[in-house]
Amino acid sequence: MNHKKIFYFISLLLAITFFIVSEGWTQPQSKPEIKPPIIIQSYVPEKGRYGDVLKFYIEAESQNEDMYRIATFVEQPGVGRYPTDFIMIKKPYRKHLKGYIQWNTFSSRGGSLPEWTQITVKISVFDKAGNESKEVVFPFEFVSTAKQTTKPPAPFDQKDIPKLGNVMIDLINPDRDGGRDRDNDLDK
Question: CATH code at 149?
Fold first, then answer.
């Protein structure tokens, strides 16, 4: 009988040892917290003329040095949300960027937009893992009497602010052709 007790004891001890080695009672290693990129500052005028070249100024940073692309979303009453436009971020700007994205608002699909057409532009930054910064939201109105500002405010008023890319969204005039095929136009 003594041998049976020793056998069970040794079996139990081996099972516990095997569990400790295979599963471990050690603390699970915590993964480093992955923080999404942060847009620190941004600027765009609130009004402009249809056909003007708009510059959206942004400053962003990433702890992980892996900012990957800038997303631009545009919403327009009577049309809806346009497909998202992405601008790839070049290597020197993956940890910190300060520059502008440029958008030529003239569109062959838009003809001319009605005076006081309002749009909402949202910009965010993604890292390689797909983490997204908080969006910055710019309400914008097309007004023919709007004057282009010559200089953006600090810190974007320096001479060597780089252009990060071009927004490639073509606006649609919701009144063109009586609004016919608007949904199909957005899918093109």
Answer: 2.60.40.10
